[in-house]
Amino acid sequence: MSRRSVQILRSSLSRRRREYGRLVAWSVVQALPAFLSGWIVARAVDRGFLADRPLTGFLWLGALAAAYVVGAWATRHAVLGLAALIEPFRDELTTLVTEGTLHRSARLGEPADTAGVARLTENVERARDAYGAIVLFVQGFLVTAVGVLVGLASLDVVLVALVLPPLLLGLALFAAALRGRWPRASGRSSWRTSASPGPRAT
């Protein structure tokens, strides 16, 4: 990823720390079903069904159902939080690249390149979609992975030792496969278009 792209992302993040904090808070609540499912099922089996107390087992399962309801409610708010991060980023990027194109046109003494602005907004939409997909993927993965790992740790730390190494290996392979591909391609496409003058109207 280019230095300019990193600066843009950092600037957007620094202006929306409250929104990111709200997203993290809702994500923690969203992770409750993944965190509690194994623990509650174990209690339902051990203290309920295996102990010949089916009512107790069903009560534990009812608690699990309630956790899923709370998780679904938190998921809704987390998605709204994602929108509050992604849409302003799109607006900022559109303003940035449009101002840059108009500034270059004025500096070179050329007429306003409205076709170039249209091309730029298309590239901005692509960058916005990619940014949103990455944030959504990372948020969903962290919610699930952290919830499951914490849940396993509450049952038996040995289970975490068995699950964590292949998980980290898979993450490393995934990062190596994707490293630099999207940022370089997207960055080159967007900023090369913004740097090149559009066709003049005849």
Characterization of this structure:
- The chain is mainly α and 202 residues long.
- Helices cover 88% and strands 0% of the residues.
- It has seven helices and no strands.
- It has helices at residues 3-15, 17-30, 32-49, 54-107, 114-155, 157-178, 181-195.
- Helix 2 (17-30) packs antiparallel against helix 4, helix 4 runs antiparallel to helix 5 (114-155) and helix 5 runs antiparallel to helix 6.
- The longest helix has 54 residues, at 54-107.
- The two termini are 38 Å apart.
- Mean pLDDT is 77; it is low at 182-202.
Keywords:
single chain, 202 residues, 0% strand, disordered C terminus, mainly alpha
Q: Termini distance?
A: 38 Å
Query: How many β-strand runs?
Result: 0
Q: Helical amount among residues, as a percent range?
A: over 70%
Unreliable residue stretches: 182-202
Radius of gyration: 24 Å
What value does the average pLDDT take? Answer: 77
Strand coverage percent: under 5%
Characterize this entry briefly.
This protein is mostly helical.
Write the layout of secondary structure elements.
Elements lengths: L2 H13 L1 H14 L1 H18 L4 H54 L6 H42 L1 H22 L2 H15 L7
